[in-house]
Specification:
Elements lengths: L6 E6 L3 H16 L5 E6 L7 E2 L2 E4 L1 H6 L4 E6 L4 H13 L3 E2 L2 E2 L4 E2 L3 E3 L4 E2 L4 E2 L3 E3 L4 E2 L4 E2 L4 E2 L4 E2 L4 E2 L3 E3 L4 E2 L4 E2 L8 E3 L4 E2 L4 E2 L8 E3 L4 E2 L4
Parallel strand pairs: 1-2, 1-5, 2-4, 5-6, 7-10, 8-11, 9-12, 10-13, 11-14, 12-15, 13-16, 14-17, 15-18, 16-19, 17-20, 18-21, 19-22, 20-23, 22-24
Antiparallel strand pairs: 3-4, 24-25
């Protein structure tokens, strides 16, 4: 009987970002010619039972559904929450799933870790290494010789130029521009740093700080 069970594919998060990812997921499953599946949302706060034509389950309810396999893509922009959800998904032996828009451009020698969400018109040039659970919102690019850690988030329109190293859990705001480093001295965005919307980053950013403005400066806590 096992083969008659559907595969379940889920987008974790039915808020704005998740609703933007869902059509990409739908398109991807059709393009891959996956048969006998259902595509749903998981959301622990959502009151609606259907969002944009897809059923919404709490995580607990999703666990109870019968399925041949269960795949989850986490569409939560907060990278700390994303990491907690990854741990939860691993605990229950669900499978991670990457959602990649058909308009993605990826050139030579680009490695991307599991659980990525890459939205429309994201562009990777060449010789790039990206960690796990990376989010790149639409119209973002990553140029040559960049290394990006785990749980990094790009809001829309991020311009990440060549020879940049971005450490784990960094968040890069909408329209931020990161100046190119050099092969012998890459520009580094430290672990957990936050780059504000529209910031122009001209030099390395220490771990854990927030920078804003043009040129980007550390936002002092009041």
């Amino acid at each position: 009987m096992g083969s008659s069970l559907k595969r379940l594919y889920a987008i974790y998060g039915a808020s704005g970002f998740g609703r933007g990812v869902m059509p990409l997921a739908r398109e991807q499953l059709i393009a891959e010619n996956i048969q006998n599946y259902e595509l749903v949302f998981i959301d622990d706060a959502e009151c609606q039972s259907i969002v944009n034509g897809h059923k919404v389950y709490s995580f607990e309810a999703f666990l109870e559904l019968d399925a041949a396999d269960k795949y989850v893509a986490i569409a939560i922009a907060n990278n700390r929450v994303r990491e907690k959800l990854v741990q939860k998904i691993n605990l229950y032996n669900l499978k991670h799933w990457s959602v990649i828009a058909p308009t993605l451009i990826s050139m030579d020698e680009v490695q991307i870790g599991e659980g990525a969400i890459l939205c429309n018109y994201v562009h990777f040039t060449s010789n790039i290494k990206v960690g796990k659970f990376f989010h790149a919102n639409y119209f973002s690019y990553v140029a040559h010789d960049c290394i990006i850690g785990d749980y990094v988030t790009f809001a829309p329109g991020v311009k990440c130029n060549g020879n940049i190293h971005i450490e784990d859990h960094a968040y890069i705001g909408t329209g931020a521009v990161i100046k190119q480093g050099t092969p012998d001295k890459p520009l580094i965005i430290g672990k957990g740093a936050i780059i504000g919307m529209g910031a122009v980053v001209t030099k390395s950013v220490p771990a854990g700080v927030t920078v804003v403005g043009n040129p980007a400066r550390i936002l002092e806590k009041k």
